[in-house]
Amino acid sequence: MQLKTILVDKPEEYINSLKIALNSPLPGRDAQLRMTPSMRPLAPPANSTPRQAAVLIPLAFIESEIFILFTLRREDLTHHGGEISFPGGNHEKKDGNCIRTALRETHEEIGLPSQAVQVLGQLTPLYIFPSRYIVHPIVGWIPNLPPLRPNAREVARILQVPLNLLLQPETIQQEIGIRNGTTITIPYYEFQAWHIWGATAMLLSELLVLTEQLLENSSC
What we know:
With 220 residues, the protein is of the alpha+beta class. It has helices spanning 3-9, 11-22, 29-33, 98-110, 163-166, 198-216, and strands at 51-62, 65-73, 84-85, 88-90, 118-122, 126-128, 133-142, 155-162, 172-179, 182-191, 194-197.
């Protein structure tokens, strides 16, 4: 059975398998490295105390297919303006844990009620060197997506990208850039006119590697 058929015809089977996999040993750093720009620091400096943050990786069932939701950030934002990201943000003491942080921030950014999300588990945390954060990625399943209300102060639009599309090898592209006088390679996922790169691509990569493993092991 082809990948798309499995994801379309048996979404609940995939989601149940994914939940089990998220609570088992993860692909981790190896999966993140597939989409890591060259020369990117992967660990905080010694004796530093990075801030904590969390994002939600929302898997939504839309018109008989599984999509991943992303936000396109406003161009005029100070940090990561114009980039594609997952909804999320800074951990606050009142949250209690990173799952609540991800759900709270997602509701604030795109208007998705926390009660609409079934938390499946967590992927491998990632250090974000420009902002000195450790980001905790939470995977959530939204079987019935309610109307969304993007926060106009932060979000230019919400992107709905088919999971099956992101699993296609040709979606991965790369470009060459210059940073501090050094040539670097920047891998990214291509979706229409947008490039998904950096930390978002690294977190996404682990989810996709995990999904590939599940589909390869599927008895379908």
